[in-house]
Each structure stands twice: as structure tokens, then as C-alpha cells.
Amino acid sequence: MVYIPVKDLNESFKVSAMFYHAEVNNERFLMRREARISRKGSIQSKVDAVVVMVNPGSCQPETEMGHTQLEKIEMLPAKSDPTQHQLMRLMERMDWNELIIVNLSDICEGNLKKFKEIEQKFKSAGIPHSIFQNDNSVERDELLANADYLIFAWGGSNNAKRMAKEYGLYDKGRQLAPYQHAISLNHIEKQYPRHPKPALISNQIEWLENLIPLL
What we know:
The chain is an alpha/beta fold. The chain has one domain (6-214). The chain has helices spanning 6-12, 82-94, 112-125, 137-145, 158-166, 201-211; strands spanning 13-24, 27-39, 47-53, 74-77, 98-103, 147-152, 170-171, 174-175, 183-184. A 7-stranded mixed beta sheet has the order 4-1-2-5-3-6-9, sandwiched between helices. A two-stranded antiparallel ribbon has the order 7-8. β7 and β8 (174-175) form a beta hairpin. The radius of gyration is 17 Å and the shape is globular. Pfam families: DUF1643. InterPro entries: DUF1643. This is DUF1643 domain-containing protein.
């Protein structure tokens, strides 16, 4: 399998995302509800796949944005990252035009310790931070109903395992109702959905080669 370089991927695809801010006890946090990878020139309305990751990490919009509430969220151009490049490779193999990334949490924080501290602030205040929490069921169901495939790919962090179980997606190597149709390439021994972008290129190619037959 040919490993497509980033330069070629960026010529074929663009990334946009829905960013917003959440306020918890007078603290403001950058959030991302979804990221969309689109083939340039595509006018397709149907989503080929929704991929569920752990959280947006340090993802940022391409340009500085003012304070935006969730109710006024809009799609903005976003900087592509290495994980998105790997998903573009999947899109090329599958001849897909539209892929959406959602997360177990919307919180944009790459440091796992800081993420957990921020998450606790949301919990204590009773403020949802995930599309998979019950408060967001209508939006979640509409999104998933418009996608041909649902792919679990959040990796093996303790935060991911905990949230996936807490929100009723996945536990002990199996998809939970109503997500039994979701596809995941599981770690053979530890049975968590493997992340699309391991460190080695050879392992990234292996992820593609092993996931594609499941689709």
C-alpha cells in the first residue's frame, strides 16, 4: 500500500470545524463540536463516515475567533493535523468525499492531566461537554443518521476508556447499544479501538490495511 504524503493530501482535501466557547464558573474554554474533512470540490451532502476520537487535543481554528456560544456555532476553516492526514488516506482508499470527526469530549486540551482537571470542572457545574451525553441526544442522532459508517478510533488512554463506558458506547471489547453497528479495529490483547495514527509509518499502513476490509 502506497503511503500518500501530506502535500498530496492537502491538495485533495480541506478541513473545517465547529468551534465554540463554554463558560464554567467564569472560566472560558475552547471547544470543538466536530471537524469535517471534505474532498475539494465535493458537493455531497451525505456523510461517508463519522469517526469517534477521544478529544480535539490542541486543535485550533485557522484564524483567531471571538467568543462564540454553542447556539451560534458555525463551520470555520481549521488547521489539519497528522491524525486528520491519516483519515484522508482512508478516504482516498475508500473513495470517500466527506468524513466527520466527533469526540468523546469537545474540550480542546492536549495535556491529559489538564484535560481531566477541566473535565471535572464541567462535571461539578453540571455542564455537558460531549455530543454523547444525553443533553445532546437529538443532535447526535441526526448526525449519525446521515452517515454510512460509524468508526470508533479513540485509542487506549484511560480517559477514553472511561468516557466510552460512561456514555454507553463501548466496554470490554464490544460496542454497546445503540452503537452495535460501529466498526473498530481493536487492539488484540487489550481490546480497545486502535488509534488511526500510531507513531511508525509501517503501523499506520497496517491500520489502514486491517480496517478497510471491515468497511
